[in-house]
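Lecture notes, continued. The same structure-token format from the folding unit now serves as the input rather than the output. Read the line below as a description of shape only.
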């Protein structure tokens, strides 16, 4: 099963995705963490996410760029958190954004279950600098590809799962 989880900032999508993975049959559970830690806010966010998943049996793989390098054994259950950070890291920190979709496809073939988290950053109506506009276009392309791969796409609205494609898995 492949699930794409989306929603706005702070809507509960990470918590829901972790509960989904925890509800799946036992097996090797991997949390692929893509966030680069730059400031106090990111330190707090990483600490909060680690505390949330502390007793859920995850093995964490730090993978800020080059998703294909994540050493995930075949048949694993994987939570990829998240496509927004991965895309930014590849675009703005010496990576290559073109390798994300092929790496997602390969990862999805190796996993028994893959849950990918992204973020709805497209609705604010603001006009951004050209580099940010390019980032949003690339992220939209990656989200579209991930949604096509997914059996289920779920938007989290105020901590409520709303199915967008397929049925929302039960957690």
């Amino acid at each position: 099963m492949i699930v794409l989880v989306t929603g706005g900032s702070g809507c509960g999508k990470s918590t829901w995705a972790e509960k989904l993975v925890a509800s799946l049959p036992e097996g090797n559970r991997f949390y692929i963490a893509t966030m680069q830690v730059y400031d106090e806010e990111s330190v707090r966010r990483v600490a909060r996410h680690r505390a949330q998943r502390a007793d859920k049996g995850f093995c964490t793989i730090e993978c800020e760029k080059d998703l294909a390098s994540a050493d995930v054994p075949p048949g694993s259950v994987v939570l990829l958190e998240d496509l927004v950070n991965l895309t930014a890291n590849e675009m703005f920190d010496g990576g290559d954004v073109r390798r994300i979709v092929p790496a997602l496809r390969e990862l999805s073939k190796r996993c028994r279950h893959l849950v990918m988290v992204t973020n709805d950053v497209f609705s604010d109506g603001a006009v951004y600098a050209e580099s940010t506009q390019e980032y949003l276009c690339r992220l939209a392309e990656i989200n579209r590809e991930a949604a096509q791969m997914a059996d289920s796409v779920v938007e989290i609205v105020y901590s409520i799962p709303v199915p967008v494609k397929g049925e929302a898995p039960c957690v």
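Point for the exam: The chain has one domain: 2-165.
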